[in-house]
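Open question from group meeting: does this chain pack into something compact, or does most of it stay loose? Before anyone orders reagents, we agreed to write out a predicted structure and look at it together. Recording both the input and the output here so the notebook holds the full record.
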Amino acid sequence: MSPKVLLIDDDSDFRAAVRSLLESHGYEVLEAASGHDGLRMVVERKPDAILLDIMMETTVEGYGITHSLKHLDEYAEFRSIPLFMTSSIEESPDERFPMSAEVELIRPDGYLSKPLDIPKLLRLLEKAVGAGRTTTA
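C-alpha coordinates returned:
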Protein backbone atom coordinates (compact mmCIF):
# COMPACT_ATOMS: atom_id res chain seq x y z
CA MET A 1 0.00 0.00 0.00
CA SER A 2 1.33 3.44 -0.94
CA PRO A 3 1.83 6.06 1.77
CA LYS A 4 -0.87 8.75 1.65
CA VAL A 5 0.19 12.39 1.54
CA LEU A 6 -2.48 15.04 2.06
CA LEU A 7 -1.68 18.20 0.12
CA ILE A 8 -3.55 21.25 1.47
CA ASP A 9 -3.04 24.29 -0.75
CA ASP A 10 -5.38 26.74 -2.45
CA ASP A 11 -3.19 26.92 -5.60
CA SER A 12 -4.51 24.28 -8.00
CA ASP A 13 -1.43 24.50 -10.26
CA PHE A 14 0.86 23.87 -7.28
CA ARG A 15 -1.27 20.92 -6.17
CA ALA A 16 -1.21 19.42 -9.69
CA ALA A 17 2.58 19.73 -9.95
CA VAL A 18 3.24 18.26 -6.51
CA ARG A 19 0.67 15.49 -7.06
CA SER A 20 2.40 14.48 -10.30
CA LEU A 21 5.81 14.48 -8.62
CA LEU A 22 4.72 12.50 -5.56
CA GLU A 23 2.71 9.97 -7.55
CA SER A 24 5.78 9.35 -9.73
CA HIS A 25 7.59 8.43 -6.50
CA GLY A 26 4.93 5.97 -5.36
CA TYR A 27 2.82 8.12 -3.05
CA GLU A 28 -0.95 8.28 -3.03
CA VAL A 29 -1.85 11.98 -3.02
CA LEU A 30 -4.98 13.40 -1.44
CA GLU A 31 -5.84 17.03 -2.16
CA ALA A 32 -7.70 19.78 -0.36
CA ALA A 33 -8.09 23.36 -1.60
CA SER A 34 -9.02 24.80 1.80
CA GLY A 35 -8.26 24.37 5.45
CA HIS A 36 -11.77 23.15 6.21
CA ASP A 37 -11.56 20.48 3.49
CA GLY A 38 -8.08 19.55 4.71
CA LEU A 39 -9.22 18.95 8.27
CA ARG A 40 -12.17 16.91 7.01
CA MET A 41 -9.84 14.79 4.87
CA VAL A 42 -7.50 14.19 7.81
CA VAL A 43 -10.40 12.66 9.72
CA GLU A 44 -11.88 10.74 6.77
CA ARG A 45 -8.72 9.51 5.02
CA LYS A 46 -6.08 9.44 7.81
CA PRO A 47 -3.04 10.44 5.73
CA ASP A 48 0.48 9.31 6.57
CA ALA A 49 1.86 12.85 6.11
CA ILE A 50 0.51 16.35 5.46
CA LEU A 51 1.99 19.01 3.18
CA LEU A 52 0.33 22.30 4.15
CA ASP A 53 0.47 25.82 2.72
CA ILE A 54 0.82 28.43 5.46
CA MET A 55 -1.11 31.24 3.79
CA MET A 56 -4.27 30.44 1.90
CA GLU A 57 -7.12 32.63 0.74
CA THR A 58 -9.55 30.65 2.88
CA THR A 59 -10.87 31.18 6.36
CA VAL A 60 -8.55 28.59 7.90
CA GLU A 61 -4.87 29.08 7.11
CA GLY A 62 -2.01 26.71 7.80
CA TYR A 63 -1.48 27.99 11.32
CA GLY A 64 -5.11 27.32 12.20
CA ILE A 65 -4.95 23.81 10.78
CA THR A 66 -1.72 23.10 12.63
CA HIS A 67 -3.18 24.41 15.88
CA SER A 68 -6.28 22.25 15.43
CA LEU A 69 -4.31 19.09 14.71
CA LYS A 70 -1.74 19.59 17.46
CA HIS A 71 -3.89 21.01 20.27
CA LEU A 72 -7.62 20.38 19.92
CA ASP A 73 -8.94 17.27 21.63
CA GLU A 74 -11.18 16.37 18.69
CA TYR A 75 -8.04 15.81 16.58
CA ALA A 76 -5.92 14.13 19.27
CA GLU A 77 -5.67 10.83 17.36
CA PHE A 78 -4.01 12.66 14.44
CA ARG A 79 -1.27 14.49 16.39
CA SER A 80 1.43 12.06 15.32
CA ILE A 81 0.90 12.67 11.59
CA PRO A 82 4.02 14.43 10.28
CA LEU A 83 3.11 17.92 9.11
CA PHE A 84 5.27 19.88 6.69
CA MET A 85 4.50 23.53 5.96
CA THR A 86 5.19 25.30 2.69
CA SER A 87 5.33 29.01 1.93
CA SER A 88 6.38 31.35 -0.82
CA ILE A 89 7.85 33.61 1.88
CA GLU A 90 11.56 32.89 2.11
CA GLU A 91 12.49 32.65 5.76
CA SER A 92 14.44 30.13 7.73
CA PRO A 93 12.32 27.82 9.89
CA ASP A 94 13.71 29.51 13.01
CA GLU A 95 12.65 32.93 11.71
CA ARG A 96 9.21 31.63 10.73
CA PHE A 97 8.70 29.53 13.88
CA PRO A 98 10.76 31.10 16.67
CA MET A 99 11.12 29.30 19.97
CA SER A 100 10.41 31.41 23.01
CA ALA A 101 10.00 30.73 26.70
CA GLU A 102 7.12 33.22 26.79
CA VAL A 103 5.20 31.98 23.78
CA GLU A 104 4.44 28.41 22.83
CA LEU A 105 4.30 28.36 19.06
CA ILE A 106 3.28 25.40 17.00
CA ARG A 107 6.18 24.20 14.90
CA PRO A 108 5.73 21.92 11.94
CA ASP A 109 7.81 18.79 11.50
CA GLY A 110 9.43 20.47 8.52
CA TYR A 111 9.34 23.67 6.51
CA LEU A 112 9.82 24.15 2.78
CA SER A 113 9.99 27.37 0.80
CA LYS A 114 8.33 27.60 -2.60
CA PRO A 115 9.44 26.79 -5.18
CA LEU A 116 10.03 23.48 -3.47
CA ASP A 117 13.43 21.91 -3.11
CA ILE A 118 12.32 18.56 -4.57
CA PRO A 119 15.15 16.41 -3.13
CA LYS A 120 14.53 17.92 0.32
CA LEU A 121 10.78 17.26 0.06
CA LEU A 122 11.38 13.65 -0.93
CA ARG A 123 13.90 13.17 1.91
CA LEU A 124 11.46 14.61 4.47
CA LEU A 125 8.66 12.35 3.28
CA GLU A 126 10.92 9.30 3.12
CA LYS A 127 12.02 9.88 6.69
CA ALA A 128 8.45 10.55 7.84
CA VAL A 129 6.67 7.59 6.26
CA GLY A 130 9.44 5.07 5.73
CA ALA A 131 10.78 3.16 2.77
CA GLY A 132 9.22 0.77 0.31
CA ARG A 133 8.19 2.99 -2.58
CA THR A 134 9.34 2.78 -6.16
CA THR A 135 11.13 5.87 -7.40
CA THR A 136 11.98 7.15 -10.84
CA ALA A 137 14.72 9.53 -9.70
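Observations to bring back to the group:
Confidence is low (pLDDT under 50) at residues 132-137.
The chain has one domain: 4-129.
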